[in-house]
Design a protein that fits this description.
It is a single chain. With 368 residues, this protein is mainly alpha-helical. It is 49% helix and 8% strand. The protein contains 14 helices and 5 strands. Strands 3-4-5 form a 3-stranded antiparallel sheet. Strands 1-2 form a two-stranded antiparallel ribbon. Helix 4 runs antiparallel to helix 5, helix 7 packs across helix 11 and helix 12 packs across helix 14. The longest helix has 25 residues. The two termini are 49 Å apart.
Length: 368
C-alpha cells in the first residue's frame, strides 16, 4: 500500500458539512426563514433527481457508497480516527482511488464510475463536493488508465463483432452436444422461434449500433419497413436522447437485419409491444419484454453455439458497426449518429481509430 495512505496528514483537511447542514445556501445572504426554504427545496431537488435515475444506476450508486464506507473503516484502522462519510475532500477521495486500485484491484474505468457514485450520493446527503476534489481524484486515476495491466482488469473491452461472426452465428446448427450426466448423453436443439429471434436480435443490434438496454427497449411499432429497409426508433434509455436511424437491406440474407427482423416478426406474430420476447426451451413465446441481460446472453450464446474463438457480448455489435463501417469507408459522423454517441465521446473515436488502423498505414507505399 502506498506510504502516503499510512500518514495521518492524508486526512487532515477541512471537513465539509454533514447531512442536513445548509451547505447549498449562503445563510448570510438571506434571512433565516428564506434560507431554510431554499435549503429544503435544494434537498427536495436532489431526492427527486435521485428517484428519477434508472434502478440499475441507483443500485450501482448504492454499491459505490458501501465501498466508500468500507474504505472509511479501513482508513480509521490506519489513522486511529473515524471520519464521517460526508468527509469527501481532496485527501479522502484521492486515497479512495488508491485504495480501490491497490486493495480491490479495480479496473480504472470502474474506479472512475465509483468516483461519480460517491460524489452524487454525498451531494444527496447535503455535502458540497467542489469540482477541484473530483478533479484531483481523476488526476490520480490518469496514470492508472495508461497501465495495460490495470486496464485489463475485470471484463475488459468488448470484442468487435464482424459480419463474418454474424454469419457464423446465424447459420450454426440448431443442435449442440450437452455435457454427459451419468451415462446419458444427448443434444439440445434450439427451438426455431428462438433461433429466429436471436438472428434478428444480433443483426439489428449491429445495424443500429445499439446498447443492450436500447435493443431491449425497442418496440414493434417503432420498427417500420420501407422500400430501402427499416426505419428504427430507438427510445430514450438512461436519460440519453432517443434517435431514429435507417437500416438498409443487407447483401447476405443470413446477415441482413431487415430480412432477419421480418422473419422473426412473422413467426412470433408481432404487431405491437416489445420487439424481442423470451422463448423457452420448448419454443413457447413469453409475453414480457426480453431484458437487457437477456439480450446480452442471446448474443453471447449464439456465438458459443457457432463455436467462435472469441467471446461476443451485448456491446460487441455496437463496437463492430463502427470498426467495420470505417474499414468500408463509412463517414465517422454517419456512424456516430447511428449509435447515438456524443460528438466528443472518447469511446467512439477509439472505435473509429480501430477501423482506420489499416487505412493508409505509415509503412504503406514507401518503398519497403
Amino acid at each position: 500500500m502506498t506510504a502516503a495512505l499510512h500518514r495521518t496528514d492524508v486526512v487532515e483537511a477541512e471537513l465539509l458539512p454533514a447531512a442536513g447542514a445548509e451547505s447549498a445556501v449562503d445563510v448570510e445572504a438571506y434571512d433565516r426563514a428564506t434560507a431554510a426554504v431554499l435549503a429544503a427545496l435544494d434537498q427536495g431537488a436532489e431526492e427527486h433527481l435521485a428517484d428519477a435515475r434508472p434502478k440499475k444506476t441507483r443500485t450501482s450508486y448504492a454499491r459505490d457508497w458501501e465501498l466508500w464506507a468500507e474504505f472509511h473503516r479501513w482508513l480509521a484502522g490506519q489513522t486511529g480516527h473515524a471520519l464521517p462519510l460526508t468527509a469527501v475532500t481532496k485527501g479522502t477521495l484521492v486515497a479512495f482511488v488508491v485504495w480501490l486500485d491497490e486493495m480491490k484491484k479495480a479496473a480504472p474505468s470502474t474506479i472512475d464510475r465509483r468516483i461519480t457514485g460517491v460524489t452524487v450520493t454525498a451531494r444527496r446527503h447535503g455535502t458540497e463536493v467542489p469540482k477541484q476534489v473530483t478533479k484531483a481524484a481523476r488526476e490520480a486515476l490518469k496514470p492508472m488508465k495508461l497501465d495495460p495491466a490495470r486496464t485489463v482488469r475485470g471484463r475488459g473491452k468488448a470484442i468487435a463483432a464482424t459480419p463474418a461472426h454474424l454469419k457464423a452465428m446465424n447459420t450454426a446448427a440448431v443442435a449442440r452436444p450437452q455435457p454427459a450426466v451419468g451415462r446419458r448423453r444427448g443434444t439440445q436443439e434450439l427451438p426455431e422461434l428462438a433461433r429466429l429471434r436471436d438472428r434478428a436480435l444480433a443483426t439489428l443490434a449491429f445495424g443500429i449500433a445499439g446498447r443492450s438496454e436500447e435493443v431491449s427497449s425497442l418496440d414493434t411499432e417503432g420498427i417500420t419497413q420501407v422500400a430501402e429497409g427499416l426505419e428504427v426508433h430507438v427510445p430514450s434509455v438512461k436519460g440519453r436522447p432517443p434517435r431514429d436511424v435507417a437500416v438498409a437491406y443487407g447483401e447476405n440474407p443470413d446477415t441482413c437485419p431487415v430480412r432477419c427482423w421480418l422473419a422473426w416478426k412473422e413467426a412470433a406474430g408481432l404487431t405491437e409491444g416489445p420487439a424481442f420476447l423470451p422463448v423457452d426451451q420448448k419454443g413457447r413465446l413469453g409475453t414480457r419484454r426480453l431484458g437487457s441481460d437477456g439480450c446480452r446472453l442471446a448474443i453471447t450464446r449464439a456465438a458459443e453455439r457457432a463455436g467462435l474463438d472469441v467471446k461476443l457480448t451485448g456491446h460487441s455489435a455496437r463496437r463492430g458497426l463502427v470498426s467495420t463501417g470505417r474499414k468500408r469507408g463509412k463517414r465517422a459522423e454517419k456512424l456516430r449518429k447511428q449509435g447515438g454517441w456524443a460528438a466528443n465521446s472518447p469511446v467512439f473515436w477509439e472505435y473509429v481509430d480501430e477501423g482506420e488502423r489499416w487505412e493508409d498505414t505509415a509503412t504503406e507505399g514507401i518503398g519497403l
